[in-house]
Amino acid sequence: GGAMIPVQVVGLGMSPEDLTPRVQEIIREAQVLVGGRRLLDYFPEHRSMKIPLGKDPEGTLKQLPALAAMKRVVVLASGDPNFYGVGPLVVRVLGAENVVIHPNLTAMQTACARLRIPWQDAVVVSLHGRSWEHLAAALGQPGPWLIYTDPEHTPGEIARFLLDRGLSAARFCVLEDLGQATERITWMSLAEAQEGEFSPLNLVVVVPDLDEAPPRRLRLHLGLPEAALDHQAGLITKAEVRAVVLAKLKLLPGQVLWDVGAGCGSVGLEASLLIPGGKIFAVERHPERAAQIAANRDHFGVDNLEVVCAPAPVG
Prior knowledge:
Strand content: 15-25%
Radius of gyration: 23 Å
Distance between the termini: 52 Å
Structural class: alpha/beta
Order of helices and strands: EHEHEHHEHEHEHEHEEHEHEHEHE
Number of helices: 12
Shape: globular
Strand order of the largest sheet: 3-2-4-1-5
């Protein structure tokens, strides 16, 4: 394409109060403002063209080069654009040479400031649009664990996930509406958190109790030992056979795998490592085996495996 006026990607921190005068000026001069509705709503007086970044951010960003040929375009981001934010996507779509990024405070930094704890040792876990295995991977690390949530992975569900893994003594803090007038910070037990109702704009900090033995939890890997899986005696595909089966399947990211007569689910679980973004259906007609597959799936935090309790389709 032709030359573009560089697109400015601006992190708003916790709110526009965190903007430096220089960045305020950049926003004031913008002719096109792009961003999530919540962020655009901070600038009701702005007379620019406003483009909401909705369900298909990539599609929306692809319209920007045409606008940026003539106009000053600013993309608004929450927190810091390069920390689990929109920054990398803008760079990928527009090309690094056409983008200037203005960093700001992250929710993580702000949370640690409010709680007066250092964050260089923190384990950062984003569950936002991602799967439980990211939290499963933090288990056994000293913490604090700083967790970005989303509508599926709410503070209550996170508390339940930790309780299910025997971590009842962990300290749990929910930080709601950080940097807004409605900000609330509450320490509670996991049991209390499980019952709580929270603002959708929230962040969770967990301080595990180091006296509580971390759950005996094997990371999911290829060639799982039989002892790592809940199974009926003899009804598990041997590790060597699993290796051959998975090699022969030549799985690629995004594919769908039907594991029919799945037994304890060992093949499907290991396959999940090979098809990120894909889906596995484990079909098993025996209810107790189907329950074991579900238990194994939950133990390893595999989100994209669905258990289908039904006889194998005839065909």
